[in-house]
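Format is chain and fold; as here:
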Amino acid sequence: MGKKYYQKWGKGIDNNTEKQIDAFDRKIFEDFIEEIIVFSQEEISFKMKCGLNLRERLVK
């Protein structure tokens, strides 16, 4: 991951030269997320390409 990873997420590691991301970026999303798993209307999981699963509860 290293430097490239941090730059993609908008927080450069060399004196913060990269612009911070303040809106959804489809390219970055597709670079890191392998799939989205829907468990119910209230719960989903983001399966990242690195193997990490982020389970999220959706609140109305």
